[in-house]
Amino acid sequence: MQGFFPTVENASSSVVPDLPLEKVAELVGGAYGIVGGIEPLPGERDQNCRIETTDRRRYVVKISNPSEPFSVVDFQIAGLDHIARISPDQPVPRVIRTLDGQTRLTVKLPNGMESTLRVLTYLEGIQVRDTACTAAQRRAMGTLLARLDHALGDFTHPAAAHEGLLWNVSAAHRLIDKLDVIVDAPRRTLAEFFMERFTKHVLPRLDSVRAQVIHNDYHLYNVLVAPEANERIVGVIDFGDMLHAPLVGEVATAAAFQMGDHRDPFEGAAQFIGAYHQTLPLTEVELEIIADLVATRHLITVLITEWRVELCPENRAYIMKNNPGAWRVLSQLAEISRDEACDRLLSEVLREKADEKYN
């Protein structure tokens, strides 16, 4: 999970839950009837654990940050239930009910604050970040995300349009004040350049694109593949950043993570976008602004991580893991025009259109 903040102003007031593992195990055993060994899992905002029973069934236990409204937790639970009904072959976690049929528990943390505890199925697989990425894998990821978004297309919930999530590429203007945290002058100039590009070329056009509930965190840590076939997707995890937002922001966010340590940073993203577009076609307006949104995704990565690491220096390794790559891609994007960036990111889409024209 990238991180939920109720508002920009009070984001620093929340502390990650730290319920003792033995207490977590006791709560899960009593309410769910699930008993087994328990170990912590990483997380920036929530407390996450894994429980493995004696018959080797595994579950994820999530204790939400107390700043996260219960309504948003219910929204995330309802989204997973919706996918399970509409598209049961989607490799996403399933929500486990308590013995009396509830989807979550309300728990009291050591500091006296209340939070929610929920249990999900644990998905086996290898994180994409730990594999040798290939064109086939990127296209498989693009295709699966398009199918996932199609399944979420008619999902609605009262908390879907919550405003607190900073990791919303379509609302990057809310982070303008975070430019002040960048002390390196050249980097600050670079960040200001892309913020201006977003406010000038993207923000005025967002009312003309489709919006729906999206996963919003589809990256190399949250997609699992089979050990014996790294192009076969077996899991999509972490729906904690799900929200109602422009659909093109979903694609741009995911494509941005395909621009890592490649000889050509545009190649992987173009393969991903091409496969997504082939399954769930993007509109002309969406195609026109997707390159700007890809750049904006890298922009909000550097802004939020530079800000968050000042607030939580003890969690520096986790917070900053994507920071260097985001700065690198922003530097590369600044060296070319918007039109060239768009053409390179949409190379497979444009090729497909040309083939259709002449066939």
Folded structure, characterized:
Helix content is 43%, strand content 15%. By secondary structure, it is α+β, with helices and mostly antiparallel strands. It has 2 domains: 11-121, Phosphorylase Kinase, domain 1, CATH 3.30.200; 126-358, Aminoglycoside phosphotransferase (APH), C-terminal lobe (Aminoglycoside 3'-phosphotransferase, Chain: A, domain 2, Alpha-Beta Complex), CATH 3.90.1200. Strands 1, 2, 3, 4, 5 and 6 form a 6-stranded antiparallel beta sheet that branches. Strands 7-9-10 form a 3-stranded antiparallel beta sheet. A hairpin with a 5-residue loop joins strand 1 and strand 2. Helix 3 packs across helix 6 (265-279) and helix 5 (247-256) runs antiparallel to helix 6. The termini are far apart.
Notable traits:
Aminoglycoside 3'-phosphotransferase, Chain: A, domain 2, alpha+beta, globular, 2 domains, single chain, 11 helices, disordered N terminus, six-stranded antiparallel beta sheet, 43% helix, Phosphorylase Kinase, domain 1, 359 residues
